[in-house]
Amino acid sequence: MGLARAIRLDVVRAEVTRLARPRPATLFGTGTVEHLREQISDDAIGLVVVDGVLSPVQQRNLERSWHAKVIDRTGLILEIFGERARTHEGRLQVELAALSYQRSRLVRSWTHLERQRGGFGFLGGPGESQLEIDRRLIGERIARLRRELDGIKRTRSLHREARRRVPYPVVALVGYTNAGKSTLFNRLTRSAVTAGDMLFATLDPTMRRLDLPSGRAVILSDTVGFISELPTHLVAAFRATLEEVTEADIILHVRDAHHPENEAQRADVLSVLADLGLADLALDEASEGGLIEVMNKIDLLDPAARASLVNHAARNSQSVALSAATGEGCEALLELLDRRLDTAIRPVRLDIPLADGKTLAWVYRHGEVLGRRDDNDAAHLSVRLSEADIARLRHQQRLH
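The structure assignment produced for this chain is given below.
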C-alpha cells in the first residue's frame, strides 16, 4: 500500500489473495476474480492495483471482468517515477522505462491496433498493421533515448575523471526508498534537495561538497531509492544514476531503523549492490570495508530500543545511529567518515597479465602506482588503492 499512497491514491480496500497456481488468462482463479468483481462493484472502485506482474492478456481480461482500470506493480512504480522525475536525465530514464514496459503491452487483441493502413516509405509499406507501426515507433524512440542517455553517461564519466584529478573522495548514500537519504543529505550539506515521507522522493542523482571535521572535503551523492522486486528493465533504465554508487569511495547504507521490515529492506539493498558488482562491500563485522550502515530515524524509536541501537552502534565501527530529522548522531557519522578515509587507502601488490591492457589502464587511473616490474607474462605492481577500488578490482578479475 505504500506504493499506492506514494502517488496519493485513496486506498479503499486491500486484500491478500492466496494464489495456488497462476492462471494464464486472469492470474487469479475464477472464484477469486468473481469475488473481487463484487467488491470492486460495491465500493465503486475505479482503479485496481495488483501487487505482482500481469501479462498484457491478464491485464486486459481483468479490466473486462472488473470494469475498472487495472495496473500491476511495474505500472504503479512507473506512475510514481513519472511524477517524481525533475531533471532532463531523470525524465529520459523514466520515459525509457515506460516505453520498454509499454512495448510489452502491445497485444493484437486491442481493437485500435488491428486496423490496417497503407504507409509511406518511412512509416512502412502498404498493409503494415497499426500494431507493427506502434511497436516500431516505440523501438525507434527507445533507441534515441538510449543514445541520449549514453551521451549523459559519457559526460558523467568525464566528470568523475575530473573529480579524481582534484581529487575529492566520493561518498554515496544508498538505501531503501523512504529511508531518509535526502533528509540526511540536506542535514549534512545544508542543502534543499526534495525530501519527504514518500517513496521515490529522489530519482535524480544530486551531489554536493561536504566538509568533514578534519577539514577534508568530500563529495556527497544522493541516489534513487531501492525497492524489493524492482523489475529488471527499471533497474537498467536507472543504471546511469546507480553508476555514481559504483564509483564511490565509501557507501553509506541508510536504513530506517523504525521500519518493521528494515532487515528485509537491508537484504534488498545489498542484493542490488551485488548486482552492481559491489558484493565485496557488503557489511562484514570483521573488516573495515567501504560500506557504513547508517541507522536512521532513531527519534521514532521507543527509549529502550533507541538506547540499545545507540549502544550497539557505539561499539561497532561499521555503523552509526542517528536521526537525520533532528541532527542527533550526525557529528558521529562525520567523524566516522574522517576515520574511515584515513585508513581507506592502502598499498597492495598486483599481478596483471600484460595482455590485459584494460585492467592495467584502470589501475593507473584509480590508484597511485608506487612501483612496477614486468616479465614476459605479467606486470607486477605495487599500488595504493582505496578499499572500494580493491573490491571493484576483485570483481572485475572474477569476470575475466
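Interim note for the steering committee: Residues 130-165 form the longest helix (36 residues). Residues 108-128, 195-203, 283-288 have pLDDT under 50 and may be disordered.
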